[in-house]
Amino acid sequence: MSYPARTVRSMLSASTLAARPEFTVAAVGCRSDHTRWSEPEARDDHRLVLVRRGRFRRWADGTDADLDPTMAYLGVPGEEERFAHPAGGDVCTSVSFKPSLLGRPLAAATVYVDARVDLAHRRLLGATGTDDLDYALTEELLRLVAAAAGGLPLRPVSADRTLAAAARQAITEGASEAAGLCSLAALLKVSPYRLSRVFSRETGVSLTRYRNRVRVSQAMDQLAEGEASLADLAARLGFADQAHLTRTVREHVGHTPTVLRRLLAPGSRASRAARSRSDVLVPD
């Protein structure tokens, strides 16, 4: 005899850690200690579920598996699922995503969580607390799902170079689609996973790092021109807020925007030195 589905649901708690149209990251906890199977239910999403603490059993389409921090599962739409909790409660990370993120659908599977996947999981959880969901978090999510799925095949090198160059152009020229990794990938007609992986391999830096480097340069340009409002500057450059701008600028150049404004002000010693070097290097 199984417990009614509503009984199991009443034992669940879920909180969304981050969400975008292409994915949702949630923390799911279950206080249930029932050893018997819940009523079958069907999901309509692709998802990767990793156990952070505890253990439970999952039955799907005739096969059951024991899940703990060393074993995760990839679920697909249409699967009938049942759950049992013979060891008490558990806490999991559930990543629901569109298969277009990786460029292809993934098959349902029980996945061994090796140390590489464990690290990717921890990095994803850390990124949910950042202000940059559209690049930093998205790249961590792609790394985690790809690591759990065992990786995907690479494309020819020449196509990779062209793709990386097109991404750099879109970012440096301020294309509206470059505001997010997923929208940039759609513009370039590739999956976000392929774009992220190719870009890192071709340039030596992540898309997140590259985009921030471009934005920091733009911030320095505008600070040198006398921009007075850091809040307005942050909004124009696509930062979440002034604090996000300040953290990113300090990470890249070692100074806050306030300090840079003074260093780059016309007439400052640093500004005079920069103009002097420019005069030497650029002939009339």
From TrEMBL:
Chain coiled-coil ranges: none
Example GO molecular function: sequence-specific DNA binding
Top-level taxon in the UniProt lineage: Bacteria
Alphabetical list of PROSITE patterns matching this protein: HTH_ARAC_FAMILY_1, HTH_ARAC_FAMILY_2
SUPFAM superfamilies the UniProt entry points to: Homeodomain-like
Keyword NADP found: no
Keywords: DNA-binding, Transcription, Transcription regulation
InterPro entries registered for this protein in UniProt: AraC_XylS_family_regulators (IPR050204), Homeodomain-like_sf (IPR009057), HTH_AraC (IPR018060), HTH_AraC-typ_CS (IPR018062)
PANTHER family referenced in this protein's UniProt entry, alphabetically: HTH-TYPE TRANSCRIPTIONAL ACTIVATOR RHAS-RELATED
Name used for this protein in its record: AraC family transcriptional regulator
Taxonomic lineage from the root: Bacteria, Bacillati, Actinomycetota, Actinomycetes, Kitasatosporales
